[in-house]
Design brief:
- It is a single chain.
- The protein is α/β, with parallel strands linked by helices.
- 46% of the residues lie in helices and 14% in strands.
- It has 16 helices and 13 strands.
- It has a 7-stranded parallel β-sheet, sandwiched between helices. A 6-stranded parallel β-sheet has the order 10-9-8-11-12-13, sandwiched between helices.
- α3 crosses α4, α4 runs parallel beside α5 and α10 packs across α15.
- The radius of gyration is 20 Å and the shape is globular.
- Bound molecules: uridine-diphosphate-N-acetylglucosamine.
- The site of uridine-diphosphate-N-acetylglucosamine has 18 residues, from α1, α5 and α11.
Length: 375
């Protein structure tokens, strides 16, 4: 059902690496719908700007070219978020979409949601209702504010739905499952890997063992105490089993500022940020994953690789309850102990985040049009 006499014009705002992946899944599904029904244009805020944090995802995942590419604004959270809002205001005024679609919990998410709602444009939030309960995380603030101003909250789990209901937002919240599950299903079978990744996978699959590590969260990278514990854990782990560590630019910068790592640590392979397909392959073939990322916890779960999450809490507790994920304190000894134990463990089956048909459910809700009566 189309609720208006012209196609629904959706303007999707992305800016950070995980959003490119989520948008790849939903945009592919929207692209299959007639343009008489729904039309999407993409705006890139420029939050992530390094080619291997951004352009590589658009190329590899076939995401439609952004109609607007913003230069991004580097600086504090306020400077960066405010800078994006100022630029988005102009685009939203000139494009005047029916609906703005945002993903997740980054500064690009909150910037787009606030710009849109203040201009009277309804917002749809994919991955609504996630809560860690930790207000010192910038992502937690971004989530709470974005959900509050969104006309359509698209929740990945029952827990997210109950969080939204508790905050009085149940009336415009819908359980759609996790869009990242769609992305894993869509892309995990593809195999156009770089020579370097193929070489690493071959090397480690011969030895049949490696652990994949990723760390980028501000609470870790901006605290030299936390970072020293994590890096010391990774170095110890690498003396037991080979470790691959693709490095986010911020991790690269802080470890080099603090002189914590070099290229010749036995067992440790340092990489620049890798592409999504490479990341999926590494996760699939690893004995275990150790991370502070939100998204990787779930990808590891979908690919049935045990995961250790170095954080005090998780927005995805179902992965822990099902035995695929375990939280570790930021202590090098415990990190090593937990990863070595995880390598021997298996969780149980379960589908707490839907069946990988989230795109279809979202498109259906966009067409049903309840968002139209938000204001
Ligand atoms: C952001 C999200 C986080 C998400 C992560 C995925 C917020 C608040 N956080 O964190 O939720 O999990 O993306 O990667 O939005 N930088 C570069 N090159 C780039 C991108 C960033 O050098 O391509 C630098 C920035 O200038 C900054 C630092 O890395 O100094 C952090 O980048 P930023 O975008 O602020 O946050 P992320 O840590 O990437």
């Amino acid at each position: 059902m189309v609720i208006q006499n012209h196609p629904i014009r959706v303007l999707t705002v992305v800016g950070a690496r995980p959003q490119f992946i989520k948008a790849a899944a939903l945009s592919a599904a929207i692209g299959k719908i007639s343009r008489d029904v729904i039309q999407e244009q993409i705006v890139h805020t420029g939050q992530h700007f390094d080619p291997n944090m951004s352009a590589v995802f658009f190329e590899e995942l076939g995401i439609p070219r952004p109609s607007h590419q913003l230069p991004g604004t580097k600086g504090s959270h306020g400077v960066s978020t405010g800078g994006m809002m100022a630029q988005l205001d102009q685009i939203l005024e000139s494009e005047s979409p029916d609906l703005v679609l945002v993903y997740g919990d980054t500064n690009s998410t909150i910037a787009a949601a606030l710009s849109a709602v203040k201009l009277g444009i309804p917002v749809a939030h994919v991955e609504a209702g996630m809560r860690s309960g930790n207000m010192s995380m910038p992502e937690e603030i971004n989530r709470i504010v974005t959900d509050r101003v969104s006309a359509l909250n698209l929740a990945p789990s029952e827990l997210a739905m109950s969080n939204l209901a508790r905050e009085g937002l149940g009336g415009n919240s819908y359980l759609v499952g996790d869009i990242m599950f769609d992305a894993v299903n869509l892309f995990a079978g593809r195999s156009n890997l770089s020579d370097k990744t193929r070489e690493l996978l071959d090397q480690f699959s011969t030895n049949s063992k490696f652990v994949l590590a990723t760390f980028h969260r501000q609470e870790n990278t901006d605290s030299s105490e936390n970072l020293r514990e994590i890096i010391s854990g990774i170095v110890k782990l690498a003396s037991e089993i080979p470790v691959i560590l693709p490095m986010h630019p911020r991790l690269q910068k802080t470890v080099s500022d603090l002189g914590l790592l070099n290229d010749s640590i036995p067992g440790l392979t340092l990489l620049p940020p890798v592409s999504y397909l490479e990341m999926l392959h590494f996760q699939k073939h690893a004995q275990a994953v150790v991370t502070d990322s939100g998204g990787i916890q779930k990808e590891a779960f979908y690919l049935r690789t045990p995961c250790i999450t170095v954080r005090d809490e998780t927005e995805w507790p179902e992965t822990v309850h099902l035995g695929w994920n375990r939280l570790a304190p930021t202590e090098s000894k415990t990190i090593v102990e937990f990863v070595l134990a995880a390598m021997q463990s298996r969780g149980t089956a379960g589908s707490p985040y839907g069946e990988g048909q989230t795109s279809d459910k979202i498109i259906d809700l966009l067409q049903r049009g309840s968002w139209n009566s938000f204001f």
